[in-house]
Fold these 2 entries.
Entry 1:
Amino acid sequence: AAMEQANPRAGSARNRKVVLRDYISRAPREDDMALVDGGAVPLRVPEGAAGPAVLVKNLYLSCDPYMRGRMRDFHGSYIPPFKPGSVIEGLGVARVVDSTHPGFVAGDIVSGMTGWEEYSLIDKPEQLNKIQQSDIPLSYHLGLLGMPGFTAYVGFYEICSPKKGEFVFVSAASGAVGQIVGQLAKLHGCYVVGSAGTNEKVELLKDKFGFDAAFNYKEEPDLTAALKRYFPEGIDIYFENVGGPMLDAVLLNMRMHGRIAVCGMVSQHGMTDPAGIHNLFCLVPKRISMKGFIQSDYINLFPQFLDYMTKHYKDGKIAYLEDMSIGLENAPAAFVGLFSGKNVGKQVVCVSQETF
Amino acid sequence: AAMEQANPRAGSARNRKVVLRDYISRAPREDDMALVDGGAVPLRVPEGAAGPAVLVKNLYLSCDPYMRGRMRDFHGSYIPPFKPGSVIEGLGVARVVDSTHPGFVAGDIVSGMTGWEEYSLIDKPEQLNKIQQSDIPLSYHLGLLGMPGFTAYVGFYEICSPKKGEFVFVSAASGAVGQIVGQLAKLHGCYVVGSAGTNEKVELLKDKFGFDAAFNYKEEPDLTAALKRYFPEGIDIYFENVGGPMLDAVLLNMRMHGRIAVCGMVSQHGMTDPAGIHNLFCLVPKRISMKGFIQSDYINLFPQFLDYMTKHYKDGKIAYLEDMSIGLENAPAAFVGLFSGKNVGKQVVCVSQETF
């Protein structure tokens, strides 16, 4: 690292990487990925590159549920699958080591799509965002100030059309997106209940994130009755992260003109809905609207989101909880843990803290 | 009838009625209803009535799928269930025999909620619409110019946000609502395909209603493949009347930013979805919105709808097909036929043609 700092264009470094072994069609396991030695990489953008590029040292990597979809051999989605044998791609925070793009210089801290490895050569640097360093931890740009936070912001304000005093339910509520949705709803003057899968998370929802109530869905034999208990007058807004039996129970408990923002990729491909959804008939008499969305369609709102979140976080109005694994070698386990709810808060991996 | 005409306030008449025997939780059968003799009714509004009322002679009754929901012992819907032993309620066209409401006089032709009987005393006459007689058949006020036509109009224009050139799919397309949705979509410059359950109906869709294509869903072993064949570029708008496996196949064939207007009450209570809906995961990557609606929420648009339909029908731009059963005694069979697709076009029952 010392040599690299002195003359980054001159050195090289060993590059470990996490690759996908092969496509899967079940829930991911640790051994679907492998940590491999990628050999020595020169610490500069190769001279023969097709266009402007940026070489970065990865600092923090984000583990997100949508990535499971990229592990399947399914090419009809909005984002292509990973390539077996190749490095896993994901969002990250990184430091620029070398750049042939006029927008970036060595030392810049950026966020954007990178690789699960120590150094990445990024050939579409225009998708990177330069981070203005502040007193907010850099890794928060993968959650509170990044894609999950923006998903919460767009989903709540643009899809749910919330009104003060409405009843809001959030599933997977302690996760990266859910914890923020709930807090935005509280700031908006809504009554907010969240569900999570452990009693520890339920306590966090109430104590740290200020939800009005929360429950452990694993301890409820009848989800419909549980929701009826928490929402005797029904649910106006459901922020859908999970699908399956929870969605069916919610449909029975929705109010007239209710809105469901469908964010969840966890029930992708029906894999967590083996029994199917049976209560869609509720859509008609209750005039419910259900809308799938992807945050990137609203990217023009990103600057206002960043201002809003930064201000409210600094003012102590929004709390944020992150679950950090240390070391690239622990990235596969961290990712796999998402699907059994092991993480408490937004799951990230620290590859390096060398921000200088 | 002669006496009634001479002095309607003086006479009386025998009143046959169709009653619901008991609540059901399966598809309706003819013997769930019974034709009973309601005895003699005086042909005037009783003097001790609680408020203004109207006595009508029923001319045409409407058989609509939503009525099945009222045959169940389920009180959580937007409309209460029928009462066992009491007359079936439904939309109809009727002639006013006597009125104590200032808005109606004997001889007026009205449409609105009435009973499946020869004479009905209507104690909420404010819900009745006076029909201006024209050269359009009166019974069309139960379809083309009534609730089904308005459902099509509202669903297509207000829920589907159609754009010229978009790809539109309509299920149950030869039914009361579907036939009109398809024609509105054609008038709007869309490409329209419909599905129906017999080859005769498929021919009607193409020949009479001007759909670009149509298919018999019962002859398609793979609905997903069938839709792929008819919509190689995918579906922008789905007008949902049926639920079940068709909805699952549509979800896989929707385009980006597609819209699903959920109108269908046929799959109410999941009874026609025994396997459930498995493909809702498509909502997210395709940014699909799915919205249930009920026409009465848009009642302020009714006058413009009536103008539009009347004009286009008279200009020969919209065709309409009605399936009329003659005689109150045939009403149960006509209604039951809806659920096996026996009717070809909008199902009505003619009780009487005495419009004078």
Entry 2:
Amino acid sequence: MKFHIVVQVLPRRGILDPQGKAISDALRTLGFPQVDDVHVGRHIVIETAAESAAAARASVQSMCDRLLANPVTEDFVISSVDAA
Amino acid sequence: MKFHIVVQVLPRRGILDPQGKAISDALRTLGFPQVDDVHVGRHIVIETAAESAAAARASVQSMCDRLLANPVTEDFVISSVDAA
């Protein structure tokens, strides 16, 4: 079966997020002074074959541990696992 | 009121996604040959003040149009607007 899995990888809270800081500064300059804070991460959509939704989730967990997220500075969340 | 708004910015379908291609190639090499395709976008969390959820959504829509997404190559989705 084919699955469509969505993962969010975000900088861990408290760790410097220069991209988020750059965007919040730019937004304030562009006329959005009400912006308090911005965090930027990656939104990754993986299309993969697996025997079941549980197997798809386990394999994506392992992909995140090994390649997609930096375990020192980032957290990841598997936000959805849908049969395609 | 404070709002916590989540936006996903993804490369438009059919437009070259070199980061997604690099990740899918790396995953296959790392022992995940079942991966068909990967798309990578940005996951942006904005903390902002607004008078209502509708006003917060409208202001984030305008931020996306003006700064956060490239209208030629990317699509964005405001996936949640929560009172903080």
